[in-house]
SRPBCC family protein
Amino acid sequence: MSEWTPSRKVVLEAPGNPDRYGVGAIRALHMFGPVIRERITRFEPPTTLQYRLVSGLPFREYTGQITVEPTETGSLMSTVISFRTIIPGTQILVAIAIRVASAGAARLARRRPPPR
């Protein structure tokens, strides 16, 4: 994840069950400012990852879902994020992070050969 997101480092703070990185796992994203913690709420490899914010950002009811679907020419990755702001205007941080992560994921996908 740190290869394609603004996170400098991602640490698994608590494993999920039964999959270590699955439902119940808590991951800490080290970017700038406070550490952002997310809990995985749905994990269906290789297509779906859903999470909710535990701490670190000024938002309420923050949830996200990443879905990967096959296409004729490769894959389509979709991200849906829902949240309520506590501090007006802070939603711009999410927009910037999504743009940076999307560009990073696209760069990484171009560098790696498709699976066989």
The CA atoms of residues 74 and 116 lie 12 Å apart. The domain at 9-111 is CATH 3.30.530.20 (Alpha-D-Glucose-1,6-Bisphosphate; Chain A, domain 4).
